[in-house]
Hints:
Blueprint: E1 4-5, E2 8-12, E3 15-18, E4 28-33, E5 39-48, E6 51-56, E7 69-76, E8 78-81, E9 89-91, E10 107-110, E11 121-122, E12 127-129, H1 133-136, E13 141-142, E14 149-151, H2 157-167, E15 169-170, E16 177-186, H3 188-201, E17 207-213, H4 218-238, E18 242-248, H5 250-263, H6 277-285, E19 289-291, E20 297-305, H7 314-322, E21 325-328, H8 331-335, E22 348-349, H9 352-355, H10 365-389, H11 396-413, H12 423-434, H13 447-453
Helix pairs in contact: 2-3, 4-5, 6-7, 10-11, 10-12, 11-12
Amino acid sequence: xxxxxxxxxxxxxxxxxxxxxxxxxxxxxxxxxxxxxxxxxxxxxxxxxxxxxxxxxxxxxxxxxxxxxxxxxxxxxxxxxxxxxxxxxxxxxxxxxxxxxxxxxxxxxxxxxxxxxxxxxxxxxxxxxxxxxxxxxxxxxxxxxxxxxxxxxxxxxxxxxxxxxxxxxxxxxxxxxxxxxxxxxxxxxxxxxxxxxxxxxxxxxxxxxxxxxxxxxxxxxxxxxxxxxxxxxxxxxxxxxxxxxxxxxxxxxxxxxxxxxxxxxxxxxxxxxxxxxxxxxxxxxxxxxxxxxxxxxxxxxxxxxxxxxxxxxxxxxxxxxxxxxxxxxxxxxxxxxxxxxxxxxxxxxxxxxxxxxxxxxxxxxxxxxxxxxxxxxxxxxxxxxxxxxxxxxxxxxxxxxxxxxxxxxxxxxxxxxxxxxxxxxxxxxxxxxxxxxxxxxxxxxxxxxxxxxxxxxxx
Length: 459
């Protein structure tokens, strides 16, 4: 029999203080019954002697201190998991919201999970094809990697996320592939866009969606990414699937953390975010990876909007330390209507070298990737020079690099959100573009690959 307490002494925002409690544990689930009989949920944030601080998942409006009963359930927040979750849509706390039947769980898992033991980790080394040239060709995603997308307010990260979720696949593997999509604090319009896109294209058949909307309680936002990752861990490590986890938008998650931290009267860190923001983000990101001896894997693409497009803001800054690179969306490319507006020069995938080459993508991938990067950077510099000194100041070689840069942005980067390119198409397009440059400038590619792959009509 659970004990009931009627000893609430204080409610501040989403926090409630209950006194005279016994045997209460950190992270324990709490049931609150209001004076009208309505049930709300919360979790224990802090225990000090016989006082417990409870964080409410719903609003605290209408709670009467004297007549409200509190029950501590003796278990953490958990998610009932089953393979039947694939193809379904849930809210931020794992409750079905697609009018489908209730899930009959195979087991119930604590959503806080555990980070993968570094000794048990297997090194990520298999290529994942997203169908997006600027990622596949230049900032390759590898199975088991954490590769965030740094976006800005108003940029089309939602369209890019939907495109990757729709197109991503592991080449040359017979294993099942699933996408777990966690939406954190997004608008109803954005949520509807994702649901419609997944349904229309059939991507929903291999996806699990967790939707936390902007008008849902901020506290639910803190649970949503953990719900998504718990589902992903079950599918990957118990059902042997390759799981791609897309989380958008991590900035809303961090804002929710800041809100709770302020309500707890904690000493703020940089820009008002709690001092433990780095540690907290790592508990999300480090749940991606491969485990030795297990078939499945979790690959993560967290998406965050940088406030004021500032890469030094605490959220992108700390994310960059924990993850293995970043894909950066450019406002300049967006203004030129080049979609998806991926800025390839500051973007980086630290594990790309492990996922490309012979028997993975193609033998010439590394050389062409380095050459495209170098040529694009040289062409951008030549373009800036032309703005200052005029085009007449450019040599013929410089003009060829400028022509290459324009063609590269128009054809390679700007492929649109509907086009799905295989890795062969991406590599062949790279060779077509390199044809614009004099052969003597292709210094980063081995002669044998030039002979084999450079289209005829070069020089």
